[in-house]
Amino acid sequence: MNIRSLVLVLLLGTASAAGWAQAPEPAPAPGTTYTEHRFSVGEGDAALPGTLLMPAGEGPFPAMVLVHGSGPGDRDSTLGPNRPFRDIAHGLASHGIAVLRYDKRTRVHPVAAAFDPDFNLDRESTDDAVAAVAALQRTPGVDPQRVFVFGHSLGAMLAPRIVQRSGAAGGVMFAASSRTMLDLIPEQMERMARLQGANPQASAASLAAINDLIARVRAGEDAPDAQSTLGAKAAYLRDADALDPVAEARATRQPLLILHGGADIQVTDTHWDDWTAAFGEDERVTLKRYPRLGHLGIETDPDAPLASYAEAGTVDAGLISDIAAWVNGQ
After folding, report:
1. What is the dihedral of CA 70, 295, 318, 178, to 10 degrees?
2. What pTM value is reported for the model?
3. Which residue in 2, 87, 101, 195 has the most C-beta neighbors within 10 A?
């Protein structure tokens, strides 16, 4: 796989491009203390199918909505053999938290999204997550005052916006870039080239072409080659470039939990440094870094970081326990 394709797989979530086989559905763990239910986000033909996990007992329970990163993700946020959202949902439910996860709009209704001239981050993710929070707040057994949002990657960047617009009780941000998507793309291309040992001259030429395209997008040009080169239309990329994650987090009044994997090759420690500089003294925000976790929340071999995407693993139990403790402490 070339560098540009690999970056699109990791950044935009186009896992099918990698040819990885989807993992089989794991059997429920023995002694499971929760039940699974079908759940729809939205209504009618535009609805998104999902799964709600409810802890055993009377409740009312705190609840969490899981919000995807980039790309047409399924409810498990499947990437290769890994299903991080499934791991997180089952882990949190075991801690007494109701969890809703759902298939993303670009997966369920890809044609409608592709032909929507106004398609942007809100139509892709924010609006559905806000609707999911509202649906959970109306669900019997859920405490409507304690519905939280968990965002991963792009979903983490959007989590403060979703919390604000939905009136959720707070937000959890894991693997959140502190910078825009158009800042991330060349940063990731350069890093992947080094990790793959790519030809320096060819990598430099590819990076120069990407930077030229980004400059044209930022200048407001039509840039029809943005779709084939960066996997999205220029208008969408301009909307994504306008998202300032740190500013949106500052504008949110609800509590935030910001988590970061120190072995993440997509959102590196430079972003963590930005978050700690912005919120290290803010009592509303809790920050925690996990030195050995990669972008999916799975322990990663520092000598072979790319292998973690193709090898089966599970989201770190300590990460899940920390999220549950934070939610239950609010």
Report:
1. -70
2. 0.91
3. 101
